[in-house]
């Protein structure tokens, strides 16, 4: 039997990088349904060594979600994960809320999230989630924002897929050299 390899751990500086997890759900925001997705994402990130992770819940809708993302970026969150609002329902407006804040798109991240999930959840390809960099000059360092689907599995798996990328991404945003 093959031993499971340990989860890759973030370095000390990345462990301290502020990460904001924002669950987007009308029912959870109203207290009608427990948020299971946010805790799943937080657990996946802490398993990878990240220690500064906050969780909030907001209702669906472009205005509320855009304000929550902007507030997280202004509060120096280096990584912002939204969970939910990426589907086709009329109130699923998370990508529309995110898009105006992005200064540089990272389409490979959104593509990887859909590709990874589609083998076990064929409807994952319907997710409209996007990813990119928010750079608000005069308001702190740039932030990565990624829209994940709202199920606990998508939140957990998406956070696990992103965790090994975060240290390199943060290094690049600081102006680090590309590896040879």
Taking pLDDT < 50 over at least 5 consecutive residues as the criterion, the unreliable ranges are: 1-13
Task: Count every helix, treating DSSP H or I runs of 4 or more residues as helices.
Answer: 8
The radius of gyration computed from the alpha-carbon positions, rounded to a whole number of angstroms, is: 16 Å
Q: Averaged pLDDT, please?
A: 90
Terminal CA distance reads: 36 Å
Largest sheet: 6 strands, mixed
Helix content: 25-40%
- Report the count of strand segments: 6
Lateral arrangement of strands in the main beta sheet: 2-1-3-6-5-4
| Proportion of residues in extended strands | 15-25%
Helix/strand class: alpha/beta
Overall morphology: globular
Order of helices and strands: HEHHEHEHEHEEHH
Structural commentary:
The protein has eight helices and six strands. It has helices at 12-15, 26-29, 37-47, 62-74, 94-98, 107-118, 152-162, 166-173, and strands spanning 19-24, 53-58, 79-83, 104-105, 131-134, 143-148. Strands 2-1-3-6-5-4 form a six-stranded mixed beta sheet, with helices on both faces. A hairpin with an 8-residue loop joins strand 5 and strand 6. The longest helix is centred in the middle third of the chain and has 13 residues, at 62-74.
């Amino acid at each position: 039997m093959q031993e499971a390899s340990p989860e890759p751990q973030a370095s000390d500086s990345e462990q301290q990088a502020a990460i904001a997890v924002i669950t987007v759900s009308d029912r959870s925001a109203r207290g009608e349904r427990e948020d299971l997705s946010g805790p799943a994402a937080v657990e996946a990130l802490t398993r990878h060594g990240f220690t500064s992770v906050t969780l909030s819940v907001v209702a669906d809708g472009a205005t509320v979600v855009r304000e929550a993302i902007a507030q997280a970026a202004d509060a120096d969150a280096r990584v912002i994960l939204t969970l939910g609002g990426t589907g086709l329902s009329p109130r699923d407006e998370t990508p529309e809320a995110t898009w105006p804040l992005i200064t540089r798109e990272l389409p490979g991240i959104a593509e990887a999230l859909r590709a990874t999930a589609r083998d076990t959840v064929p409807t994952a390809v319907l997710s409209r989630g996007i990813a990119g960099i928010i750079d608000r000059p005069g308001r702190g360092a740039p932030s990565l924002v990624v829209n994940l689907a709202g199920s606990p599995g998508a939140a957990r798996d998406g956070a696990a897929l992103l965790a090994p990328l975060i240290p390199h991404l943060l290094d690049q945003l600081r102006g680090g050299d590309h590896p040879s």
